[in-house]
Write a structure and sequence with these properties.
globular, 74 residues
């Protein structure tokens, strides 16, 4: 993830994990995940592109996390 996305997630006090080509952000609720996605979708897409992978946003009780893929355009 890019530092701007990590900074926002840290400021929100949310947990996150970063793997080789993916990252997962743990929102406290689906409503908070929806709000975050609405506000930061462009930043998340850019971060996923830099990772050359995906960023997932999950919350407690989540069965299907939101998945943001990076652009493959050059």
């Amino acid at each position: 993830m890019t530092t701007d996305v990590i900074e926002v997630v840290n400021n929100l006090g949310w947990e996150y994990g970063v793997g080789r080509n993916s990252a997962i952000i743990y929102a406290p609720s689906q409503q908070e995940a929806d709000k975050f996605l609405d506000e930061a979708v462009e930043q998340l897409e850019k971060a996923a592109t830099r990772l050359q992978g995906k960023i997932k946003i999950a919350w407690q009780g989540c069965r299907r996390p939101y998945t943001i893929s990076g652009s493959t355009e050059h």
